[in-house]
Give the backbone structure.
Amino acid sequence: MGVLSLTTSKAKVYFVCLAAFLSVGIDEPVIAAEKIVTLTADVWCPYNCDQSSRDQGFMVEAAREILKTQGYTLKYVNQTWSRALADVRAGQRDAIVGASQAEAEGLALVEEPLGENKNCFYTRIDDPYVYMPGGSLARRRIGVAAGYLYGEPLDQYIEKNRVNFNLVQLATGDQPLLQNLRKLKAGRVDTVIENMLVMDFSLRKYLFDGVRLAGCDEPRPLYMAFSPKRADAGRLKDLMSRGIRELKKTGRMREILARYGLTDWK
């Protein structure tokens, strides 16, 4: 995987231009204590990766770069997805990344998407099951992540059967996919629902084999959102929207995505 970067001189020009662009309409000063933004999510690489890794995910990198132009420092913390959402709503953390519109309900949602989510269905390689969008999951034991929303009608099905261990098994912790892959390999579930990019990344990372793609749903946009408890949440979400559009316009987003072997979703 090639790593694309700007030359030193071009980088200086780029950051000066991006900072100037994003500062339009921002007049009031921000005190130093408010210059730290704590971003949280579980481990969902390549969107948002391990906080201790060098490459923390393309969404995290894009957010850090945009916020830096206005003097903000981004602090990235991994938690379970349910806890991350709860902490952002309560104001214990400032922002969350990789959320659907439904998951970010009540938060200050960044208008411009920062990626998209394509939920796919995976089985063991010897399983002939084929999933069609809106199709039946009857007699399938599915492994999903606790606290995730997958879109309707899946969310309704999961909620209805969440206590039926023979139909739905909820993985917890900050790496639920790894749990579900182990369950799939052991035969404890026969279908795992996961984002296509996340699954591809994880299969390579954990060297899992014997897993096949059985079908996918239509892609849906993913967003960053800020806590409504933060006084400058409206300002920050507008800053991020403008910044994402500028990263895409200048080609910088393409460079960030290339670090993860990805191309622009639009």
